[in-house]
Amino acid sequence: MGVTKTEVFTDEHNRIAELAKAFAHPARVAILQLLAQKKACVCGDLVDELPLAQATVSQHLKELKRIGIIKGEINPPRVCYCINEAVWQEARELFGSVLDTFTPNNCC
Amino acid sequence: MGVTKTEVFTDEHNRIAELAKAFAHPARVAILQLLAQKKACVCGDLVDELPLAQATVSQHLKELKRIGIIKGEINPPRVCYCINEAVWQEARELFGSVLDTFTPNNCC
DNA sequence: GATTGTGATCGCAATATTACGATAAAAGTA
DNA sequence: TACTTTTATCGTAATATTGCGATCACAATC
């Protein structure tokens, strides 16, 4: 297999998993952090900051765009990437909804 | 390839990515939520709650245990799984450290 | 000592991910 | 039109992940 059975899980669980995937690779964490702190924005600048080939960075950007957490604005010959504020907020809320509902137990 | 170049990223970025992986699959989100809300604890109960085979659930539990976000206590013939509070807190802090440092921009 | 209940592990198949060189695409510039 | 710059995409290779049936391991119980 290798294919996740998304259809048997709730939409919320699938969405949380998808948003978590955005952060589930160190390069993507680095990209998101650079964009969030506005230390970079243009694709080429991100490539300069990251120890990865241009093709690889572009691929990660594509995945982040697919998830929706970033958006790109073409500014020939450059492309400027930015955090999608609404989705960023969605991530905060969904992660919070899971992480904040932990009640310590004495079960084990 | 298929192998992440962890050595070229910071420890923090790698750790965030690893913790995010815990949430990067809907089954694991469901497991973590069940444990956080204490609606299940024993492995068998988790299997009953999830639409996956026992072997698959066990594998996800192993991965969560490897990451450290859950711990298991053997209680023959059962095994009781619980959230590792310290790591749960670590996740909250690290995710927060990224998600809270977003300053809206007017770049694009 | 055989049986039972519970969970871990093995082995396999299928798909996904990561990485990168090479090349294409797009739009401006000479 | 040719050239340059920047980014996307293609193709490929290697490794990782997901899923499950079958089996193993362990301790309790009969």
Q: Could you characterize what this model shows?
A:
Chain A has helices at residues 11-22, 26-36, 43-49, 54-67, 85-99, and strands at residues 70-75, 78-83. Chain A is mainly alpha-helical and 108 residues long. Chain A has a single domain, classed as Winged helix-like DNA-binding domain superfamily/Winged helix DNA-binding domain (Arc Repressor Mutant, subunit A), CATH 1.10.10. The first copy, chain A, is elongated, with a radius of gyration of 16 Å. The model of chain A has no long low-confidence stretch (mean pLDDT 93). Chains A and B meet through helix 1, helix 2, strand 1, strand 2 and helix 5 of A and helix 1, helix 2, strand 1, strand 2 and helix 5 of B. The structure holds a DNA duplex (30 and 30 nucleotides). Chains A, B: Keywords: DNA-binding, Transcription, Transcription regulation. Chains A, B: Residues 8-106 form the HTH arsR-type domain. Chains A, B: GO terms for molecular function: DNA binding; DNA-binding transcription factor activity. Chains A, B: It comes from Arsenicibacter rosenii.
SSE string of chain A, helix = H, strand = E?
Answer: HHHHEEH
State the helix count of chain A.
5
Q: What share of the residues of chain A does DSSP label as strand, in percent?
A: 5-15%
**Total strand segments of chain A:** 2
Task: Indicate how many domains the architecture of chain A comprises.
Answer: 1
Let me know the largest β-sheet of chain A.
2 strands, antiparallel
Helical content of chain A stands at 40-55%
- Quickly give the structural class of chain A: mainly alpha
